[in-house]
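just leaving the lab so this will be short. what follows is a protein written twice so to speak, once as letters and once as structure tokens for the fold. can you read through it and tell me how you think this chain folds. anything you notice is useful, everything is just below:
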Amino acid sequence: MPQIPHRFPVRRALPVVGALIVVAALAACVPGAGAGVPSSSPSGAASASASPSPSGAASGAPVAGAPCTRDSLIATYTATDGTAGHLHGILTFQNHLDTPCTLSGYPTVYFGQPDTAGGMGAPASNDSSDPGSPVTLGLNDTAVANLTITEAGIVDGCAIVDTYYFAVSPPGVGFDIDTNAMQATAEGLEGCSNDVSLLVVGGIAAE
């Protein structure tokens, strides 16, 4: 009987094809198996996903120990005494939030515009002899800064305007009446509407 050699390769190939099908099926069931699929995530991606966000960063809440902002503080002014041609007082900053925050340096202080919310004239100059020291404020804690006011009537060139408050911003944030300034009421003040400085402020310190 004549032999048909081309059928032998077909019979031997069937088990190989079946084995390949089984291997492929097993590979599909095992995560990460097969060519081109990494066995684990890159180390950079893993560490990035595991790193926690800073406290409050996602929600916009204050971060403990971060600089105090207008949203954290209430500012008040208390007159103390007077000397020849000058008035003296204290600016007090109180943290009204549960989250601690820090004050360090000199606040920005202007006379308040009497008819609109804003600063008037020149800002207070910083008293280099009174630098203060950093203070961390918990809920309802306070810090203070000394303020000296030169009487407007004795300063040449001052365009005198009556006012009833100081416009104050915390140290380190600049001054913008819409975003970071507060009003500290102070009755019976006279300021300069032009660029004449009557104010000298000390650094923030513990009360």
About this structure: The chain is about 15% helix and 35% strand. The mean pLDDT is 78.
